[in-house]
Design a protein that fits this description.
This protein has 221 residues and is α/β, with parallel strands linked by helices. It has a single domain, classed as TIM Barrel (Alpha-Beta Barrel). It is 28% helix and 22% strand. It has a nine-stranded mixed beta sheet with strand order 3-1-2-4-5-6-7-8-9. Helix 4 links the parallel strand 6 and strand 7. It is globular. Catalyzes the complex heterocyclic radical-mediated conversion of 6-carboxy-5,6,7,8-tetrahydropterin (CPH4) to 7-carboxy-7-deazaguanine (CDG), a step common to the biosynthetic pathways of all 7-deazapurine-containing compounds. It catalyses: 6-carboxy-5,6,7,8-tetrahydropterin + H(+) = 7-carboxy-7-carbaguanine + NH4(+).
Length: 221
């Protein structure tokens, strides 16, 4: 069973799947504590805020409410909601607090591709053909470290950047893993011009790719 904060269909706005129609499953719970987190409403799992799945899918605002849902129930929801996307992004919160194998397996059996967006601070429990995006969170308030196993498992590493020290953090992380088959992105931490200009300059300097949060420029979820 998974604690789900929201489910919605949209366009993936980040990383190598940018532009793909996607169903997002946002799981509840994250202890990592990034100060600039834009999903702080997913951090806590409060028993008093549990709701039926039907109430979760009609949310019109970000709230801390969550529903406990099985993989089969999530799959059935896609049909009742009429979702057409065949790519599923499992995000959070920190989705790797959960064993994602059962959910990914049932989705793959029904023709969906899967992608996980994780901080890299929990072991990735997912099938080999799930695309893993690690957005490494270094020195955050929760005191978690980026795991070697998560770095090695990553298909893409997408690092949030606001200052040059964030690029230095990434360079240190990359020394720990073979990047031959990985895509490496810098993603401005906000839409502010300064962060974007820094990311562009650093992409040119180190031959990284640039990921901007396209959905935020479009004003969609
Ligand atoms: S890991 Fe993600 S959800 Fe958790 S605090 Fe950091 S940005 Fe927010």
């Amino acid at each position: 069973m998974y604690k789900v904060n929201e489910v919605f269909e949209t366009i993936q706005g980040e990383g190598s799947f940018t532009g793909a129609a996607a169903i997002f499953i946002r799981l509840q719970g994250c202890p990592v504590g990034c100060s600039w987190c834009d999903t702080k409403h997913t951090w806590e799992i409060k028993d008093t805020l549990r709701q039926p799945l039907g109430d979760i899918v009609i949310k019109t605002a970000e709230t801390e409410h969550w529903a406990e849902v099985s993989p089969a129930e999530l799959l059935a929801l896609f049909a009742t909601e009429g979702y057409q996307a065949k790519h599923v992004v499992i995000t959070g919160g920190e989705p790797c607090m959960y064993d994602l194998n059962p959910l990914c397996h049932i989705l793959h059996q029904h023709g969906y591709s899967t992608q996980i967006e994780t901080s890299g601070t929990f072991e990735v429990k997912a099938p080999a053909d799930t695309w893993v995006t690690v957005s490494p969170k270094v020195n955050m308030a929760g005191g978690y470290t980026v795991l070697q196993s998560a770095l090695d498992r990553a298909n893409e590493i997408k690092h949030p950047v606001a200052m040059e020290k964030h690029v230095d953090e990434l360079l240190q992380l990359l020394q720990r893993t073979d990047t031959t088959a990985k895509l490496v992105y810098l993603q401005p931490i906000s839409q502010q011009r300064r962060a974007t200009e820094l990311a562009i300059a650093m992409c040119k300097r180190y031959n990284f790719r640039l990921s901007v949060q396209v959905h935020k420029y479009l004003g969609i979820s």
